[in-house]
Automatic annotation (TrEMBL):
GO terms for molecular function: carotenoid dioxygenase activity; metal ion binding. Its cofactor is Fe(2+). The keyword Iron applies. Fe cation binds at residues 278, 327. It holds the Pfam family RPE65. This is Uncharacterized protein. It comes from Acer saccharum (Sugar maple). Residues 42-64 have a biased composition (Low complexity).
Length: 416
């Protein structure tokens, strides 16, 4: 996972003139100090900044801070059971899953920030600059009551929109099904996937409690369980917040620099369940290539989107014979390439092992799978053993796609 590394540069459509705000004497360089007081981690959060005053002209109606709902009596009862699990059955015993450690200091969660103008403190922004930088990352809506892994946080987008010599900063949650349900309930509802299933007893307890919440109508997993916290991708003229456990969420940047969630996108019903957070878009053809992987056969499914974002039929890969951590892949101008690496997905490990669904298997021979990028089935797919890749840090995932060179009449493909 690279939940803190995602970013995206977007070209904006027609700029809208934003009236110059009135900056008060307290205006200074951009500062953010919006850690929620009620959910503040137990450890001291160091903050040396102050918040830049808001400009009425750059604060949309949606920017009004949302009051979180008060938990119902039923929610409080369920939370009491959750507290028992977190205190007596599976407390966060390791620093790596202790929220007071994981979410301390610079990693402390922050609240949403409406569009806020940044003061230029040196030089000026060239008027020809017209676009936005947006990043995605996990930022839990509620301070976790039990074990928490960095990748368990709700997706939050941070943007800096630069236009007409001005820079507007904004932070917004992706309004996923999970985020909305938990916001409306005034409480977290969904167990943390990466840290909440640690051993048989904890897994059974949290699984049972979540099932009861579903039966009580607090949460509908059919509408998605994803966090949309991993990356951003722009294709088919739409911007998506992505997480490989769910469908993409379409989002957009408004003319005043706010970030809005359009909704969970299934591409006219053609995209099933989930999709990689790292699709690859061909800069020449504008086609986008993607896949999903999972716990049940086919363990790998390849597909692509036309330049207009129309999803093409799935290509199930049954020659992928076991679950594997296929977080990323690569494309060339002829092929798509997948890494069947030594990091295996072992769901039973969550229940009977050390709690992580991902495990290093030194006995597994890593493979590279190569399939023509316009394949309609896997008949032309070839797998190559690459036993030289032995160390787990060397086969995290396939990194970035590399182009294919044919200048000497041959074929060269470089995988990063
Ligand atoms: Fe990643």
């Amino acid at each position: 996972m690279d939940a803190f590394s995602s970013s995206f540069m977007s070209t904006l459509s027609p700029p809208t003139i934003i009236p110059k705000p009135i900056l008060t004497p307290f205006s200074s360089r951009l500062n953010i100090s919006s850690v929620r007081i009620e959910d503040k981690p137990a450890t001291q959060v160091t903050s040396t900044t102050t918040t830049t005053p808001q400009s009425p002209s750059t604060t949309s109606s949606s920017a009004v801070p949302k009051r979180r709902a008060e938990p119902s009596v039923l929610t409080l009862i369920f939370n009491a059971f959750d507290d028992i699990i977190n205190k007596f059955i599976d407390p966060p015993s390791k620093p790596s899953v202790d929220p007071t450690h994981v979410l301390s200091n610079n990693f402390a969660p922050v609240d949403e920030l409406p569009p806020t103008e940044c003061e230029v403190i040196q030089g000026s922004l060239p008027p020809c600059l017209d676009g936005a930088y947006i990043r995605n990352g996990p930022n839990p809506q509620y301070l976790p009551r039990g074990p928490y892994h960095l990748c368990d946080g709700d997706g939050m987008l941070h943007s800096i929109k630069i236009s007409q010599g001005r820079a507007i900063f904004c932070s917004r949650y992706v309004n996923t099904n999970k985020y909305i349900a938990e916001r409306d309930a005034g409480s977290s509802l969904v167990p943390n996937f990466f840290s909440g299933f640690n051993g048989l007893t904890a897994s059974a307890a949290r699984g049972a409690l979540f099932a009861v919440r579903i039966l009580a109508g607090q949460y509908n997993p059919a509408n998605g369980i994803g966090l949309a916290n991993t990356s951003l991708a722009f294709f088919g003229d739409r911007l998506y917040a992505l997480c490989e456990s769910d469908l993409p969420y379409a989002v957009r940047l408004t003319s005043n620099g706010d970030i809005e969630t359009i909704g969970r996108h299934d591409f006219d019903g053609k995209l099933f369940m989930s999709m990689t957070a790292h699709p690859k878009t061909d800069p020449d053809t504008k086609e986008t290539f993607a896949f999903r992987y999972g716990l049940v056969p086919p363990f790998l499914t390849y597909f692509r989107f036309d330049s207009d974002g129309s999803k093409q039929p799935d290509v199930p890969i049954f020659s992928m014979t076991r679950q594997s951590f296929l977080h990323d892949f690569a494309i060339t101008n002829k092929y798509a390439i997948f890494g069947d690496i030594q990091i295996a997905m072992i769901p039973t490990e969550m229940i009977f092992g050390g709690g992580s669904p991902f495990g290093y298997d030194p006995n597994k021979v890593p493979r590279l799978g190569v399939i023509p990028r316009y394949a309609k089935d896997e008949s032309e797919m070839r797998w190559f053993n690459v036993p030289g890749v032995q160390h787990p840090t060397r086969n995290q995932c396939l990194g970035r796609g590399r182009w294919q060179h044919n200048s000497d009449g041959g074929t060269k493909c470089t995988i990063g």
